[in-house]
Amino acid sequence: MLDKVALFSSLSPDDVATLERHTKTKRYRKNTVIMEKGDESAALYVLVSGKVRVYVADEEGKEVVLNVCDEPGSHFGELALLRDTTRTASVMTLEDSQFLIISKPDFRKCLADHPEIALDIIGALVDQVSNLTERVSALALNDVYGRLAATLKDIAREEDGRLITQALTQQELAQMIGASREMVSRIFKELKAGDYIHLEDKRIVLNKKLPARW
What we know:
Blueprint: H1 13-20, E1 24-28, E2 33-35, E3 43-49, E4 52-57, E5 63-69, E6 75-76, H2 78-83, E7 90-93, E8 97-103, H3 104-113, H4 117-141, H5 144-155, E9 157-159, E10 162-167, H6 170-177, H7 181-193, E11 197-200, E12 203-206
């Protein structure tokens, strides 16, 4: 599994195998909060199977969804391990999920033994900063449709010659763009009527370039 993790792409197969021998496997039920913003950092989590929501919430329970992950090899928690700080976001399972967990000492030993991993981490951080900058700009400057269109284009990945997202509910998308589920539903209805998108098992397929305006 670890050979699917971008952070460890520079490691040899033997090094990956060595690191994997130090991992622990843990399963969580659906709707389990496995880490909360402000928690002490102790491990890096790698998703083996399932689906999670990465989010931040205020004291009144208002949430902003930062990401929804269902791809094996997705990982989170590395920033807190590197900076000796608390978690910057919360993570909750949306399905029964399984993880490989790498402890802080093992992660840091791997980093010390293989400093080239730092370059992979820097690359991952650059991508994260770029994506967050685009998302903040979209949230600040676009209307609801603009934010939704930008988010769909950002999270869609090419698969068999098509652009397709992971499985997402309209509520999850609404939380990602700071809108109501009802508004997302209205936009979806018209995009489907215009054959811009269609759904396959809750995955959104972008049939063609989305219109500039709604």
